[in-house]
Design a protein that fits this description.
mainly beta, Immunoglobulin-like, seven-stranded antiparallel β-sheet, 0% helix, elongated
């Protein structure tokens, strides 16, 4: 009998053994784990006054799942024993909650009365660490004292209660004890304690007392293994007579689970091999001691004297490709009385195998290295991209981007990007299959499930590579539960971008920097034109050539991305094109249309004491008249880097004279504190257009807004009070404020580059971290603000407080209300505005009359057919300056 306690919204758990420890994992609960962050981003599309289509994203809002408790204890046991005899009975305690729980255990005699004739002495509770039905280690509970044990969400522990029967108890007398468990959490409904208990009953007999225990050679099996021996388990049955007289015709029975196959000829009785076949032809008095019929093993022991022990072993193999689960096996023994008593429960876990792929097919889940051939070539190609266009992958116009769960268990998948051979300042953004809603999470994909993505690549407005094809970016996917797996990849390729207007490329006559036939157009397609090493204080020379491919004569300013302290000078090259001549220059001088060219060299000297690391050197030519530019990337190596992560590149719009704020996070994924010196973490914040203003703030209250609580970062480094730095696993929220000049021209693009250059730590270096925020000037500027509050699931009203952009905590079964407000902050009317949002993973849309979903000053639409998942949107045909429209809806956290 099982004593099951709340919470009922969590799925029932099945205990299983985890290695040599006493802890046992169980099936996943339906509710998300405590601490799970449910994040969501809204988006809007509109057409500005120039007729251009624009996309804008809201801030991210996050809901954190709160912990809830639930425990089970199985099962009530019955047994027989002699007077003054030691009795041991097995139980399983399971934490069915969604977070870790510390559980208090106790055991006590039941008061004598109906069903109870005597008390036990020496009551104790032990862990059964190897799942063999025998106590291990010191007791957790002794007598009237209590003990505690901490279980992770979904884990179980095997317990054994031990006591001694009364020396004066008579035959047929019964004694009872109760094993109690009290959760460290409270019932979320009543606020009371969460408890579970089992009652065991032991009847006194004068004769034989037969016990049976079962153990397995392994606790975890990979059922995907092709070799049968890799899926084998050796089971051991130990039977003994602890009573006062000899038992006759003892019968041991073991029925195998359907997921187990008996290995013929492997049974041994007291280490002596047994015959599997049933022999019914023997003469009178023959006893067929061992046999197997179908899936049931039987052992008959004609006589078992007191204090006698026997052992039967056999092998069984797990059926190949069995789904992850517990394989529970319990044997039984009949001491010759016709009454069967079970052994302890034994568990073998079929391991969960987590893996997945990403490719260009929704019907074939092939992985890297296993491409079935064209068109399934694990890449998606755009043959020709016009300069300034956004490259969109994963739509009907290209091929689909599909993530496949190829493991044998449900899992969520993490998606990351690699810019590969994309030019500097390129931005990769991911969206859900609708191409509008920003991608946050795949959610949990079932075994064999799939998820579609859309990827958009925004190249710098000045970039073109018509003569040097195949810019390649890469999407990488890993199962969240198996981050050690090598990522599966999908390449996104842009064959060419046309046309080029100015070309800055390698200035020597070698072909080291590309695949072009001659020095000139297309020669800077590789990520780095040159890769060199230099000691701090020494100089290195990069040969350059500038070709004006435009239709008018022009001149170009020379610039670089290196931080203060680096000595960078440009010179006209000598006849060989490899050395400097004359004085340093900052402009190429006039170059004729189509044929104008000039060879230069850049001489770069890192300062003495400069932090060792790989320094990406971006050398740029920019027309002061037209803004056209080109950049070449060089690599200057000093040393290696560490693991700070800066997220993420952003895209936004701003009206002339207006401002836009971009949120970034600086996360320390190292195993040490970063920036814990007075030098902090050096950074630069550079704007392509020098008449634009850019500022960096620390978002101290993490609300995504610049307010009085936030710190304006001045100087050239991010420093911390007391030189505390960024702790391991910690994140610093940053806000970049960008302001356009009042005379900014509609359509102008301004990349603002935020770069961090961490200093050495005990001789370990770190590469530069960089985000690019790309801002476009538009007369009609639409800004999205998203906020949330914990809502009443019946009325939609706030449970406490008001709308906030800060993190909200919600338990499974509770509701959160989202509000997305779009405001035209520009000075011109925009049209075709669509505010889009999506029901996030781990939640469902909660319909509340008059509240969810609801749009104000807009037309509601886009709700999925089942009304519980998918996109929710609101459309506004025309949107005047200062006008607002909003979209509201309520989601419920899965339970």
């Amino acid at each position: 009998m099982s004593n099951r306690l709340q919470l009922t919204q969590l799925a029932a758990s099945i205990a299983l053994v985890a290695g040599s420890a006493a802890f046992i994992s169980s099936a996943h609960a339906a509710a998300p784990a405590a601490g799970t962050n449910i994040s969501n981003v809204a988006s809007a599309t509109y057409t500005d006054s120039t007729g251009a289509s624009k996309t804008v994203n809201s801030n991210i809002v996050t809901t954190t799942v709160s912990p809830v408790g639930s425990i089970t204890l199985v099962a009530n046991r019955t047994a027989t024993a002699n007077a003054n005899a030691l009795v041991s009975l097995s139980h399983t305690l399971t934490n069915n909650g969604n977070s870790s729980d510390t559980i208090t255990l106790s055991v006590a005699n039941i008061a004598n009365g109906s069903g109870d004739d005597y008390d036990f002495s020496g009551l104790k509770v032990y862990l059964d660490t190897n799942n063999d039905g025998t106590p291990d280690g010191a007791p957790v509970v002794i007598g009237n004292a209590t003990g505690t044990i901490t279980l992770a969400a979904g884990q179980s522990v095997n317990l054994i209660v031990e006591g001694t029967t009364s020396a004066t108890a008579a035959a047929s007398n019964t004694g009872q004890w109760t094993l109690n468990a009290v959760s460290g959490r409270t019932d979320v409904v009543t606020g009371g304690a969460l408890t579970a208990s089992n009652t065991d009953t032991v009847t006194i007999i004068n004769g034989a007392v037969i016990s049976l225990t079962k153990s397995a050679s392994v606790s975890l099996i990979d059922a995907t293994k092709a070799t049968a021996a890799d899926r084998e388990v050796t089971y051991t049955l130990v039977y003994k007579n602890t009573g006062n007289s000899t038992a006759t015709n003892v019968l041991v029975t073991d029925k195998l689970d359907s997921r187990l196959e008996y290995v013929p000829g492997t049974a041994k009785l007291m280490n002596v091999s047994q015959t599997d076949a049933v022999d019914d032809t023997a003469g009178p008095g023959f006893v067929d001691n061992y046999k197997i019929v179908g899936d049931t093993l039987t052992l008959k022991i004609p006589s078992l004297a007191p204090n006698t022990t026997g052992t039967l072993t056999f092998k069984a193999r797990v059926v190949q490709n069995t789904d992850p689960a517990l394989i529970r096996n319990t044997a039984e023994v009949d001491p010759g009385t016709g009454t069967k008593t079970p052994s302890n429960d034994n568990y073998v876990e079929v391991a969960k195998i987590f893996k997945g792929t990403i490719n260009d097919s929704d019907t074939n889940n092939y992985a890297d290295g296993a491409n079935p051939g064209a068109p399934l070539d694990n890449q998606i190609t755009i043959a020709d991209l016009l300069q300034g266009q956004v490259a969109v992958f994963g739509t009907a116009a290209t091929e689909k981007i599909v993530i496949h769960n190829t493991g044998n268990f449900a899992d969520e998948f993490t998606v990351s990007t690699s810019n590969g051979t994309l030019p500097p300042n390129s931005v990769i953004t991911l969206y859900q299959a609708d191409g509008v809603t920003p991608f946050v999470s795949t959610g949990t994909l079932a075994k064999g499930g799939k998820y579609e993505l859309v990827a958009k690549i925004t190249l710098p407005a000045s970039y073109a590579n018509a003569a040097n094809p195949n810019l390649t970016a890469t999407l990488l996917v890993k199962p969240k539960s198996n981050p050690a797996q090598t990522a599966d990849t999908l390449d996104l390729i842009i064959t060419k971008v046309t046309p080029a207007t100015v070309d800055l490329h390698n200035g020597n006559a070698t072909n080291q920097d590309g695949s072009g036939a001659a020095v000139g157009s297309g020669k800077d397609a590789n990520k780095y034109a040159n890769e060199v090493s230099v000691l701090p204080g020494n100089s290195v020379t990069f040969p350059l050539q500038v070709d004006n491919l435009g239709s008018v004569s022009d001149n170009f300013n020379l610039s670089h991305n290196l931080p203060a302290g680096w000595d960078v000078k440009f010179y006209v090259a000598d006849a060989a094109g490899t050395g400097p001549t004359g004085s340093p220059i900052t402009n190429t001088g006039n170059l004729d249309a189509q044929t104008g060219t000039k060879k230069l060299v850049a001489v770069i000297t890192p300062p003495l004491g400069e932090t060792a690391g790989d320094q990406e050197v971006l050398l740029t030519v920019t027309s002061p008249a037209t803004g056209l530019s080109d950049t070449i990337a060089e690599k200057l190596t000093v040393q290696a880097d560490r693991k700070l992560v800066l997220n993420q590149d952003r895209i936004g719009q701003v009206a002339p004279g207006g401002t836009v704020v971009y949120k970034h996070t600086l996360t320390n994924n190292s195993n040490l504190v970063e920036g814990a010196t007075a030098a902090g973490i050096p950074f630069t914040l550079t704007s392509l257009n020098t008449d634009w203003a850019a500022s960096l703030y620390i978002d101290n209250n993490n609300d995504g807004l610049i307010d009085a609580n936030d710190t304006l970062v001045t100087g050239a480094a991010l420093t911390f009070p007391g030189n505390a730095g960024i702790a391991k696993g910690a994140t610093v929220n940053l806000l970049v404020k960008v302001q356009a000049p009042v005379n900014a021209t509609v359509g102008t693009q301004n990349p603002v580059v935020l770069t961090f250059n961490p200093v050495d730590y005990n001789g370990i270096s770190h590469a530069a971290l960089k985000n690019t925020d790309l801002t476009t000037v538009t007369e009609g500027q639409v800004r999205l603000v998203k906020d949330q509050y914990l809502a009443n699931c019946t009325t939609g009203a706030a449970v406490s407080g008001t709308y906030t952009q800060m993190t909200v905590s919600a338990k499974p079964g509770e509701c959160v209300k989202y509000r997305i407000v779009a405001t035209n902050e520009g000075n011109a009317t925009v049209t075709n505005v669509v505010i889009s949002d999506n029901t996030p993973s781990y939640t469902t849309l909660k319909a509340i009359s008059g509240v969810s979903p609801k749009a104000t000053n807009a037309t509601l639409g886009g709700i999925s057919a089942d009304g519980a998942t998918g996109t929710v949107s609101a459309a506004q045909a025309s949107f005047a300056p200062n006008a607002t429209a909003s979209l509201e809806f309520v989601i419920k956290v899965d339970e």
